[in-house]
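Look over this record as teaching material.
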Amino acid sequence: MTKTGMVTFDGAGVGGLIDEVIVRNVTIENAGRSLFELRNGGDIEIKNTTMNESHFENGNEIEIGEGINTKIWNCTFKSIQRGSGNGGVLNGRVRNGNCVDVNKCVFEECKCNSVSAIGGGIVLIVGDGGKLLFDDNKINGCRVAERRGKGGGMHLTFETTNIEYSMKNDTFTNNAAEKGEDVYLVCRSPWTMLLPAL
């Protein structure tokens, strides 16, 4: 599916199971359910795209399952809300050589309205062989309802040490959650974290 130009949604949204998405130079507003949902392999590429003012009761902007390569570059996500579940904009799992690559994006005022949500803007589980690249992104004002949950801006779960990840030049401001207002990290495998001396 390839789209260029202006796409306007009337609240019903567009969703469904697909195996490849390419979106470039598009503005999407007022979507009402998961826009892109890939579950059983495939690729999603979103570049130079703006998504505004969307409210999803039982979904989010981008939902990815295992076996998906995801590239999101130079995009803006503003005022995206999820009624239930996790991750207002991006929710999913990456493993077995697959990659989530997010570069030069803005996530602003994205949230989960459910008090049982674990993360506000982005929720990712990185399993064996998964690759996560986050560079030059701005995450501002993202949160979980009533300051609950863990990771207002981003909630990451690393299931093993056999992963590749990089987070460089990302800026987190004014995010809110009960724990980890900006980023909450869960490491399920024995880890030795090397932190820079202060």
User: Anything to note?
Assistant: Residues 1-17, 194-198 have pLDDT under 50 and may be disordered. The radius of gyration is 16 Å.
